[in-house]
Specification:
Keywords: Metal-binding, Zinc, Zinc-finger. Pfam families: PRY, RDM, SPRY, zf-C3HC4_4. The protein is an alpha+beta fold. The protein is 11% helix and 25% strand.
Length: 353
């Protein structure tokens, strides 16, 4: 994620942090020193934008002071950003053995015998009726229940292009159409066709590396935060603050879509051996400066006016509404989405297409 901040503050010509950035007539921005690299207009008067070929005369080229200040701050903060936005390997000491709870699984979900993998099937599994089962949305909860302490687990998402993974309140409604929103008791990251969204009250588009294969989740019940990490490179994906501990919390998985070979699995990863020599991660004396903020901060990614996954991607990722609906499987299998009354905040939004 730190690389995303750096990219936003870098010149597309020299690939370095902006220095004395200037803006052309078409809003293309580059360093002033990079202007000679742009092609000259056919009449020799002015420069051609490398993106749109619009001509900018000398009087059209203006300094971009806001971007200059922003780039300077990001360059100064790059070491701190890299450190804060990386997963601390010591959180692996809080690994928990998570399995899927069959009594909560929607009847069209196929669950593996070891209770770690789930996908959508084409037929009913004919499971017995249970009051805790998801009735319409293809979702399932995990065990154990979390009531205190810190917990870490990983989910392999490489086998599916559409999914939702996160945390759920024990008492969150599982009947009818499930709306994935933190105000409804679901703290999730949703992926649809390679685009990522955090299920906040106003869904937030996220900047995530497209090669995401394994998602790490770190829950600190006592502090009230749930953080998501890209396990391969340790980068921070998103943090939900204010997760209440008034009732038990449970892992949540929502597979969606079905590949041609029917193998679109989401898989909970078994606990991995913890490398020897990892230091403690406590809250008492000896806690290193920044540990608590890095792992359990109520804030999202720090930065001068930027948030992890924020910016233009927020508006582009979800422009159709203010809620994210649990992704459905195949249209013939599931009833149409139940509209949310206007008094409840408007209709649910579909995952980004």
């Amino acid at each position: 994620m730190a690389q995303q901040f750096k990219k936003a503050a870098s010149c597309s010509i020299c690939l370095r942090y902006f220095e004395d950035p200037v803006k052309l007539r078409c809003s293309f921005t580059c360093c002033r020193r990079c202007l000679p690299a742009l092609p000259t207009a056919p009449d020799g008067e002015g420069l051609l934008c490398s993106n749109c070929s619009r001509v900018s005369r000398k009087e059209d080229i203006k300094p971009h002071r806001v971007l200059c200040s922003l780039a300077s701050k990001i360059k100064e903060m790059e070491p701190q950003l890299t450190s804060l936005l990386q997963m601390d390997p010591r959180i692996r000491k809080f690994q928990v053995d998570v399995t899927l709870d069959l009594d909560t699984a929607h009847d069209y979900l196929v669950i593996s015998e070891d209770l770690r993998r789930v996908r959508i099937g084409g037929d009913s599994q004919e499971r017995p009726a249970h009051p805790g089962r998801f009735s319409d949305s293809p979702c399932v909860l995990g065990a154990p229940r979390f009531t205190s302490g810190r917990h870490y687990w990983e989910v392999d998402v490489a086998g599916s292009r559409t999914w939702s993974v996160g945390l759920c309140r024990e008492a969150a409604s599982r009947q009818g159409d499930v709306v994935l929103s933190d105000e409804r008791g679901f703290w999730t990251v949703i992926c649809s066709g390679g685009r990522f969204v955090a299920g906040t009250q106003h869904p937030r588009g996220l900047l995530v590396q497209p090669r995401l294969r394994r998602l790490g989740l770190f829950l600190d019940v006592d502090v009230g935060t749930l953080s998501f990490y890209h396990v391969a490179d340790g980068s921070h994906v998103f943090t939900f603050p204010g997760v209440p501990a008034a009732e038990p919390l449970r892992p949540f998985l929502g597979p969606a879509g079905s590949s041609e070979d029917g193998e679109s699995w989401l898989a909970i990863c078994p606990c991995a051996p913890v490398p020897a020599g990892l230091g403690s991660l406590g809250r008492g004396p000896g806690l290193e400066s920044g540990d608590e903020e890095a792992l359990s901060s109520g804030s999202r990614a720090p930065g001068p006016g930027l948030e992890s996954g924020g910016g233009e991607g927020d508006r582009e990722a979800l422009s159709s509404g203010s809620r994210t609906r649990a992704p459905c499987a195949r249209a013939p299998l599931w009833p149409r989405a139940r509209p949310v009354a206007a008094a409840e905040g408007g209709a649910p939004a579909r995952p980004p297409e």
